[in-house]
Amino acid sequence: MRRRITWYEAGILSMVVAALLFAAGCGKAEPGKPGTPPQASAKDEERVTDAMARGIQFLHDNLKPDGSWENHPGITGIVLLSILKSGNGYNPEQDPFIRKPVSYLLGLQKANGAIYEHELANYCTAIALQALIATKDKKYEENVKKARGFLLGIQLGEGQGYESSDPGYGGVAYSDDNLRADLSNAQTFADAIKAAEDSGLEKNSDAWKRLVVFASRCQNRSESNDQKWASNDGGATYSPWESKAYEVDLPDGRKGLRSYGSMTYAFLKCMIYADVKKDDPRVKAAYEWIQKHYTLDENPQMGQQGLFYYYHTMAKALSAYGDDVLVDAKGVKHEWRKDMIDKLLSLQQPDGSWVNAKDRWWENRPVLVTSYVVLTLEELTEKK
């Protein structure tokens, strides 16, 4: 029987470290003052530390003997990434339960650098790449370089016969045999490429420039989007062809693609990662949409569908944007980190997991959703 790791055995030190991370991420500040994070109470620090600990314990307890979670490389990569980035210092050298999923992912790496089993080659590789980088183990450098090379090679561009005028130019699809790009995969690609660059690999400016072209064609801003469906609310859709929030009738009689929360935050994150400035009209329009639709009760225009994916994307996007206080369209100031922490902790299940009652996009799987939340809490409390 696998021995259960208890958090008391892990020692008080891990709780102190996590608490310090929380304090560093939230800092001491005057509440509501833009540019300064809110002050965290000792009680809040303890609540976050405990929530993350119980979430990771749940994930650990659901590790399969082959080193996977859910027998799926994509889910395995997300879980592994969440544990490695949790601030507890886990690494393959010291922790056997980390070695197993790392070995599982490496065993799936193909000659071309992709890391997947049967499907979703691009998505699985992007997630696995981030997890391998998060090990901070030099012996995986070649695996990281190969995976990154694969991802850069599958971004839709001139190599696949695309021209900059084509709607999918600069995008990324789920797999290398699927040329229908979408913004969800594009943001996962962006996360992976940025993680590789942050780890010391050279920056590929051309890849970021192409990504900006694609992302701009997913935004409802007709001045910068040449697609016929584009309106001007500033939000973003799933792709230049589709919105998961469906079509909308525009005042001029056209059929538009409805903007929604998770993709608008994905758009904002991609633009910031690509070094597009905050005063760029596209970024300003997206942020104004966010101000109008600020909420933690739902994924705007999608209700409860994809809610935890929304939380994770929202946290990363607003963190990248850099304002610690968000002023909504009504002038109300929101300490969004504290708001999100309170919301997430209120949704934790007795067994330490999180889950969505709405099953779209696999959010009825507690292992996946718990990983999203641990990653989100890590983002909310990480010192920048």
How many strand units? 4
- Summed over residues and divided by their number, the pLDDT gives a mean of 90
| String of helices and strands | HHHHHHHHHEEHHHEEHH
Secondary structure class reads mainly alpha
Give the overall silhouette: globular
CA-atom Rg in angstroms: 20 Å
Unreliable sequence segments? 1-37
Q: Reading side by side through the largest sheet, how are the strands ordered?
A: 1-2
- The end-to-end distance, rounded to whole angstroms, is 40 Å
Largest sheet: 2 strands, antiparallel
- DSSP helix fraction: 40-55%
Strand percentage? under 5%
- State the helix count: 14
Pick out its properties.
two-stranded antiparallel sheet, mainly alpha, 384 residues
